[in-house]
Design goal:
Strand order of the largest sheet: 2-3-5-8-12-17-22-27-32-37-40
Number of strands: 58
CATH architecture of one domain: Sandwich
Largest sheet: 11 strands, parallel
Helix content: under 10%
Number of helices: 1
CATH class of one domain: Mainly Beta
């Protein structure tokens, strides 16, 4: 049963050209840049294991191409050593989410801004997956983004380790030792951001720095980052100048600031109003767990704040934050926002294992309206959920018939089978519905809604050869087709999903069925529901743990 396991696996399919090819480095071309230069949209550049140095293997540019550049067997085996002279990659040609970098370790990068990877001056929003950015640094008086620099860009950064990087300046501004965001809204998901440094007169955001930016930071472990300088703010995350990030299910631990003015060992909020939910802020040093300055509209809920030197909350706090007034669903004391102030009981924090022990007060203490954990229980607090091993009594499985699925530019369809089973000892009545997550992460649907379905104990509904159409005017890119059972729309008992991609280049429709579905009632007539929801949500799947990327390639476009 796949269920929510899809949440911890991002499956990315390359597409674009009708006859996509794989270019081998160094087999076909001697350097990574030469391989990229030979590629066109939809191609894959596959880089063999080894250590890559010198011209053509640093300061690498995609040149705006929608391609996949991937290592043969992961970041520990494919290393780009910049030798302290240049950065690894530079995205500055309007790259999109279809410009994918996967499986590299970038070390010893050195540049004025963005020692490992830079996104900007021209807005660029690549997808960066399963990479390690290690010991990269900045070199100018404006030392911004030791690991990754984002300006006017919205990259998606998934399952990356950004560690031991530094933003340093001998006498001025050192911002974002790990990641720097300016006028940028990146998605940072399932990442480890640790051991990064910001050192200068103004040392802000050793882990992540946000300037007029609204990143989504989810299921990340942010620990052991440090800032030092006269003005040292936000060692874990620093939010300034109208930055309103969304911080969800993160663990922020052991970060520290030092200086004449030191604020926010964990998080610093100045003229910014982040949303912080289901997050542990624990054991941060100096300046408190979260520091507030002109940030009274910050939303902090369903979190755990414990053992932060200087206080869990400092500065001008939102009214009622941190004042115990009641108990939460577990019966533990909490404030009016359901925040607790208890030891989270990590498995082994000394060795950076921030999983929860079985008796942790963070289990099932998250926002009950958040997506459930993969074990189908209420969301836990923190980056790593505790697996309680509960299986839903009603299950749904979607099985694509010919994966990987690639929809032509003019539209097409795909076939799948659906199985719904009742594992209960009683009759059950429920709803079933499907949604589509578009390339921009908006959720469209329901594409079909079947209300009042009923199953006897041990009963099942099996539908084979379901044919889902995708219209030609649907945007090109990566999609998730979601099947839900429960009580529409918010009570979800179980779900499953199918990944597919729609090719670019639309100029005419191949059919006029829109988003019709054939086959539910065993007839040739389409099953049509007018979509009632079109909302921008966080990216799906939303990884509860670091994400594994599996990348496939098709040699030709076709109906499936």
């Amino acid at each position: 049963m796949k269920n929510l396991l899809i949440i911890s696996t991002a499956i990315i399919l390359t597409a674009g050209a009708v006859f996509a090819v794989t270019i081998y480095v160094p087999g076909d071309y001697p350097t990574i840049q030469a391989g990229i230069n030979a590629a066109i949209n939809g191609d894959t550049v596959l880089v063999a294991d080894g250590i890559y140095t010198g011209t053509g293997n640093k300061n690498i540019s995609f040149g705006g191409r929608e391609i996949v550049v991937i290592s043969e067997s992961g970041p520990e085996n494919c290393i780009i050593n910049c030798e302290n002279d240049g950065r690894g990659f530079y995205f500055n040609n309007n790259e999109t989410s279809a410009s994918i970098l996967s499986g590299f370790k970038i070390i010893n990068g050195s540049a004025d801004q963005g020692g490992g990877i830079r996104c900007g001056y021209t807005p660029s929003s690549p997808t960066i997956i399963n990479c390690i950015i290690f010991r990269c640094s900045t070199t100018s008086d404006w030392g911004y983004g030791g690991g990754i620099y984002c300006e006017d860009s919205n990259p998606t950064i998934i399952n990356c380790t950004i560690t031991d990087n530094s933003a340093s300046s001998p006498g001025n501004w050192a911002y974002g030792g790990g990641i720097y965001c300016e006028d940028a809204d990146p998605t940072i998901s399932g990442c480890t951001i640790s051991g990064n440094i910001a050192a200068g007169s103004w040392a802000h955001g050793a882990g992540i720095y946000c300037d007029d930016s609204n990143p989504t930071i989810d299921h990340c472990a942010i620990y052991d980052n440090s800032g030092s300088g006269t003005w040292s703010y936000g060692a874990g995350i620093c939010c300034r100048y109208s930055s309103n990030p969304t911080i969800v299910n993160c663990t922020i631990n052991g970060n520290s600031v030092s200086g004449t003015w030191q604020h926010g060992g964990g998080i610093h909020c100045s003229d910014s109003n982040p949303t912080i939910v289901n997050t542990i802020v624990e054991g941060n040093e100096a300046g408190g767990g979260i520091y507030f300055d002109s940030a009274l509209n910050t939303s902090v809920s369903y979190g755990d704040f414990y053992n932060n030197s200087g206080g869990n909350f400092t500065g001008s706090l939102p009214a009622g934050l941190g004042s115990i007034t009641g108990v939460n669903a577990n019966g533990d004391p909490c404030d009016r926002f359901f925040n607790i102030l208890l030891d989270p009981l990590f498995v082994n924090p000394v060795n950076n294992d921030f999983h929860l022990q079985a008796n942790s007060p963070c289990i099932d203490a998250g926002d009950p309206t958040s997506p459930p954990d993969p074990d189908f229980t209420v969301a836990d607090i923190g980056a790593f959920y505790y697996d309680q091993g509960i299986v839903p009594l009603i299950t749904v499985i979607l099985t694509p018939q010919n994966p990987p699925i690639q929809i032509p530019a003019g539209g097409g369809s795909f076939l799948y089978d659906i199985t719904i089973e009742n594992n209960d000892v009683m009759n059950v009545t429920f709803d079933g519905w499907t949604m589509a997550v578009l390339p921009n992460s908006s959720v469209y649907g329901p594409l079909i809604l079947r209300s009042g379905l009923s199953l006897a104990p041990g009963g099942s509904i099996i539908r084979e050869d379901m044919e889902q159409f995708v219209p030609g005017n649907a945007p090109a890119g990566a999609y998730y087709y979601l099947g839900y059972i429960g009580v529409y729309p918010d009570n979800i008992v179980d779900s499953d999903s199918i990944y597919f991609e729609k090719l670019p280049g639309y100029d005419a429709d191949n059919h006029d069925y829109g988003w019709s579905l054939f086959g539910w009632d065993g007839e040739n007539a389409p099953v049509v529901s007018t979509p009632m929801v079109y909302a921008v949500l966080s990216a799906y799947p939303n990884p509860f743990n670091p994400t594994t990327a599996i990348i496939y390639q098709l040699q030709a476009a076709s109906y499936v």
